[in-house]
Specification:
Blueprint: H1 13-26, H2 45-57, H3 61-87, H4 90-107, H5 112-133, H6 141-157, H7 159-180, H8 184-213, H9 242-257, H10 264-284, H11 297-321, H12 325-353, H13 355-363, H14 383-394, E1 402-405, H15 409-413, E2 417-418, H16 433-442, H17 449-457, E3 466-471, E4 480-488, E5 496-504, E6 513-518, E7 521-526
Parallel strand pairs: 1-2, 1-3
Antiparallel strand pairs: 3-4, 3-7, 4-5, 6-7
Helix pairs in contact: 1-2, 2-3, 3-4, 3-5, 4-5, 4-11, 4-12, 5-6, 5-7, 5-10, 5-11, 6-7, 6-8, 7-8, 7-10, 9-10, 9-11, 10-11, 11-12
Length: 531
């Protein structure tokens, strides 16, 4: 609570997430987080709302990231409870939604837009099961429409979970169609697909149109990531922990009641499809890519937690029904006490689960140049001075200026466009990441400003007019400026190789550039009159 930064601070993945919100706080339209003139490739829904809240309140987007994350997850938890309460008893809804909320907060909060979807998936799958079944031809359509709306919103928030949910719904519809020997479930699935597809076009249409009319999109490397968790199946029910015991109870409940319960059935299908997705992901490695199955592990945990909560409730009710009436109340009281103790114990352990993410939030330097742990700030403390100098020299709005830098958190705090992204995995496939990297590497061979400016003006993309670099260190000549770039080396883990590009300082030793030293940075700005 003493830091302005959210979990994992402004490091690695949170850099591009914060950059995305900063972009959409500065401009209400759909824009790529890094590359000027391109529509977004990553779903903008969650970031757009957060960005608009930041703009409305006058709060820097990086500072809004934390309260918006907490608020949006809270809203999703409440919505999940309300949805459960419309389908099951109030007490059951309270227990299940509390359990799944705790699991989501422990294992998915660093990606808040993923936690939102994950906590809502269990009740939505149960709702979808009833809608796809449709006991009568005119029944269940409200559920079908509701699921279609949810799936569409999911497409605006998180592509992977959208695809997983669509896959699960397809399996559900196929099973119901075969079991009942009717096509009605498939027709209802088609309605869900149409509704969700129309909603998804809100953010996907600009990208698809640009890809169809402009330079063909690269295949992209967003799926080029295979950590250990993605190379093996996850079995949370086998872990010797409190949550593991609950997941094991949920697994038993799913196996026993999958064919007879309208809650166990869809949850069982959802769990099985997680494992099916994981196996497919392993298979796609033969094609040189993955399906990022490791990112479904929090979803699997939430699903099994929901099943475990139901299993605990059903076991309590079964035991209470088998004892004398005067002892039934005692059984319920004991179960309530055990459940409460387990919930409190698990909740108290959540900060320990998130310890590494919390530590980074305290040790990273925020947009005001401060660290929450009160230790000396990092190089980010000079960003405000860098920004002021850029504004002074260019006199242009930040969103009209392209910056080339390897200190990507600068773009997270200020809405400048970047010439090159953090890594190819987060880069827009329309941006031609590899060609841009090749152009930057080619500048190493240049020797004077005339050659450099000619190379900049000849590029097919809008060239950078601001260069935020570091001075050459050990291994580099002191009369060079360096950039630390990245290339994809999948299937290696880590999947990124960092390398340095050293540019001769003679490229900027020209009246057409304004060169200054600010802290550890060398800031070279091409004067507007020369562009």
């Amino acid at each position: 609570g003493a830091t302005r930064l959210y979990l994992f601070g402004i490091s690695v993945d949170q850099q591009f997430r914060t950059e995305y919100m900063t972009r959409l706080a500065d401009q209400p339209g759909l824009h790529d987080m890094t590359y000027i003139g391109l529509p977004p490739f990553y779903p903008a829904g969650w970031f757009w709302i957060g960005g608009r809240l930041a703009a409305l309140t006058g709060t820097p987007a990086w500072e809004m990231f934390k309260p918006w994350s907490i608020t949006s997850i809270t809203i999703a938890i409440v919505l999940a409870f309300v949805l459960w309460a419309t389908m099951i008893r109030f007490e059951y809804a309270l227990v299940v939604s509390t359990a799944t909320a705790a699991a989501a907060l422990a294992y998915s909060p660093a990606e808040p837009y993923a936690a939102i979807i994950a906590v809502l998936l269990p009740p939505v799958f149960v709702l979808a099961w009833s809608g796809l079944r449709g006991r009568s031809r005119g029944g269940g359509w409200a559920a079908v429409v509701g699921v279609g709306l949810f799936l569409g919103v999911t497409a605006l928030f998180y592509t992977l979970l959208f695809l997983y949910a669509a896959f699960t719904l397809t399996v559900m519809a196929a099973l119901l169609s075969v079991a009942r020997r009717k096509v009605d479930p498939l027709l209802r699935l088609l309605v869900i697909a149409v509704i969700s597809g129309l909603i998804a076009l809100i953010t996907w249409a600009p990208y698809l149109l640009a890809a169809a009319r402009g330079t063909p999109a690269e295949s992209g490397t967003a799926q080029h990531y295979l950590p250990m968790d993605g190379a093996e199946l996850s079995f949370p029910m086998l872990k010797f922990t409190l949550l593991g015991a609950l997941c094991m109870l949920g697994t038993v409940w799913l196996v026993v009641y999958a064919r007879t319960s309208t809650r166990a059935g869809p949850l069982a299908v959802a769990v099985v499809t997680v494992y099916a997705w994981s196996l497919l992901s392993m298979l796609t490695t033969l094609a040189g890519t993955t399906l990022l199955s490791f990112r479904l592990q929090p979803t699997l945990t939430v699903l099994l937690t929901a099943a475990g909560a139901f299993g605990f409730l059903e076991a309590t009710r079964a035991v209470a029904a088998r004892v004398h009436r005067q002892n039934a109340t005692r059984v319920v009281a004991v179960a309530a006490a055990v459940g409460a103790l387990g919930a409190v114990t698990f909740s108290q352990d959540i900060p320990d689960v998130l310890r590494s993410d919390i530590v980074v939030a305290y040790t990273d330097t925020d947009g005001y140049g401060e660290r929450a742990d009160r230790r000396p700030p990092g190089a980010e403390q000079y960003y405000r001075e860098v920004d002021a100098r850029i504004q002074e020299v260019t006199g242009r709005p930040r969103n009209e200026t392209v910056v080339l830098t390897a200190d990507y958190s600068f773009l997270s705090y200020y809405p400048y466009y970047g010439f090159q992204g953090l890594t190819s995995h987060y880069a827009n496939p329309l941006a031609q990441f590899d060609q841009r990297a090749g152009a930057i590497e080619g500048w190493r061979m240049l020797t004077d400003a005339d050659e450099f400016i000619d190379a900049l003006d000849a590029m097919p993309w809008e060239p950078p007019s601001v260069f935020l670099m570091r001075r050459g260190g050990s291994g580099d000549s002191t009369d060079t400026y360096t950039l630390r770039l990245a290339e994809d080396v999948y299937p290696n883990q880590p999947n990124v190789r960092r390398y340095h590009v050293a540019l001769d300082d003679a490229l900027f030793d020209d009246p057409r550039f304004d060169v200054s030293t600010i802290g550890p940075f060398v800031l070279a700005i091409r004067k507007p009159s020369t562009i």
